[in-house]
Structure formats: C-alpha cells, structure tokens
Structure prediction request, 234 residues.
Amino acid sequence: MTSDLPDMRASDAERERIAERLRDAVAEGRLDMDEFEERLDAAYRARTHGELEPLVRDLPVPGGSPAPLATPSPGAGAADYARRIGQPATSKGAFAFWSGFGRKGTWTVARRFTAVVLQGGGEIDLRDAGFEDRDIVIRCFTVMGGIQVTVPPDMHVDVRGFGFMGGFGESGSGGDPDDIAPGSPRVTVTGFALMGGVGVERKLRKADKQRLKEARRRERLEKRESGGTKGEPE
Prediction:
C-alpha cells in the first residue's frame, strides 16, 4: 500500500499493522499516551490508505528501511528476554532509612542485588528491566518497613524469603510453567522481613495492558460494524 493510492480502501490487516507501528512508537517513547490513543482510535476508524498513512508518517519504518504500510511488523507476544540479558549492571543494591528508594523502568539489575530498608519503603520493578546474567538473586532485608518487587506474569521467579511478625510472599496471576516465556531470566527473591513485609507481585507490563485494551476496542468496533452492537452506548 502506498500514498499513490490514497483513496484505496484499507483492510483490517492494514489497520492492525498501523496499530502495531503505533504500539512500537509508544514503547520507544516516540509518542506519549495521549498521542498514542488519539492515533490508535483514528487508525481503527480509518477507511482508506490516505487516512492511515499520516498516522505513521513521522515514525520510523520497522527495520530502518522504507516499506509500505502493508509490510508486516513483528507480532506481539512474550517479551524478548534474550536481548535484555547480559547487559552491564546499572544498580547493585539499594538502601533506605526513614525514606524510600525505587528501581523501575529501563534499568539493569546486577546478578546479585541487595536491598535494605529500615523504617522505610522500596520498589523494585523488573517488568522493563535488563539483567546482568540469566540467573539473578535479589536479597531483600527489611525492618519495620516494606519492599515491593514487581515482575511480569511470564518471568521465572522463585520466592524463598522469611518473615517474622511480618510477611514475605508472592501474589498475582502467572508463574505457572505454561506461563513462563522462553529464555526468561531465573530470578530468586530471598531475604528476611522483621515487623514488615516483602511482597513479590506479578503484574502485566503497561504495553500488555494496552494491547488488551486495544483488543477489546477492536472487538467492539467489529461488532458495531457488523451491526452486532447497534444502538449500544460507547
């Protein structure tokens, strides 16, 4: 599909490929969420090539070479852990006393990471992190405080810590053998919580949440177009 035929009707597959380009752009920080949602809505409502092409005109083509909009882009799926393992560590530990710390976003966890909290709090988010090694050990020690470790549902995590007058445990869906992504790092969370807690929670990445939202949006749009939801409120 090219701009030489702006009035040619767009197919569902072409709309979806534009949506995938937009998802890549927001994940890379090229679009903020408001721009992303506005363009995504326009993509699913577009009827012609001429309406689709302006939505990605200022975005790079996947692979760095010019290609028509109909060129397939990589499909969504489990995280590509292979490219995130083996990077130099950006943080080997964290400490908080009557305060807090945070390790989240795009950072690289050391193969041995130690977190200590005294009457404070800490957050360790591995959903978008890189990993110095395939095998990672995160040691958490807290006294009258708390540490929250957030991991995606498809990551291999082993929780071995102990809590006294407190808690040390895992929550959230995922973690079963069928859920673990190929090549996932093996993360062990261990340590000790005294009159406090260490929680390991499995949560979807923001991009995965957005994909689920888009899937529901597409389903509503398809039903509306087929007359299945005629008269239903948005």
In short: The helical segments are 12-27, 33-45, 49-52, 206-225. The longest helix spans residues 206-225.
